Amino acid sequence: LTGLYNHAYLLQALRQEVLRAKRHGLKAGLFLLDLDDFKRVNDEGGHREGDRYLRRVARALVSGVRRGDLVARWGGDEFAVLLLGTGEKEAVEVAERLGRRLQEEGVSASLGVAVYAGDLEDLFLRADQALYRAKALGKGRVVLASPQGRR
């Protein structure tokens, strides 16, 4: 539907990047993005409008990251972006920039950001927890996960 990679491909690519990061001491940022009020888009405009909305989000995300970064549809109205060679500060800057770009497109999204710190599962857990904090604090927010081991 969106032309993006899917959940399974993202996990496979992330495993490869984690191995590369371990081997070469590289960084990798990940953020999970959840569309705010997407149900309302489907309810008011129908599923065709919801599909157009998802495609618009996908285009905005892809055009807002570097070549080589990976944008995937995580599921439903959730997306994931893997930022290669990117530390904490840069990952937050990219997430905030993409959040603003989406707002310009009339889309509100909450984003949870984490940076790889040696454990793939922990990376996803921290990004997911940051996403839930962003949703709890209000719509259209970017929240950075606490460092590995501090939750």
Notes on the structure:
The mean pLDDT is 91. It is built from 4 helices and 5 strands. It is 52% helix and 21% strand. The protein has 151 residues and is an alpha+beta fold. The termini are far apart. 35% of the residues are buried. Strands 2-3-1-4-5 form a 5-stranded mixed sheet, with helices on both faces.
Question: How much beta, percentage-wise?
Answer: 15-25%
What are the segments in which pLDDT stays under 50 over at least 5 consecutive residues? none
Across the major sheet, the strand order is 2-3-1-4-5
Report Rg: 15 Å
* Count, helices: 4
Q: Which bin fits the share of residues in helices?
A: 40-55%
Q: What about the largest sheet?
A: 5 strands, mixed
Overall pLDDT level: 91
3D shape: globular
In whole angstroms, the N-to-C terminal distance is: 35 Å
Q: Note the run of SSEs as H and E.
A: HEHEEHEHE
According to DSSP, the number of beta strands is: 5
Structural class determined from secondary elements: alpha+beta
Outline the secondary-structure elements.
Layout: H1 7-24, E1 28-35, H2 38-63, E2 70-75, E3 78-84, H3 88-104, E4 109-115, H4 120-137, E5 142-144
Parallel strand pairs: 4-5
Antiparallel strand pairs: 1-3, 1-4, 2-3
Which tags fit this structure?
4 helices, 151 residues, globular
Could you write a compact summary of the structure shown?
The protein has 151 residues and is an alpha+beta fold.
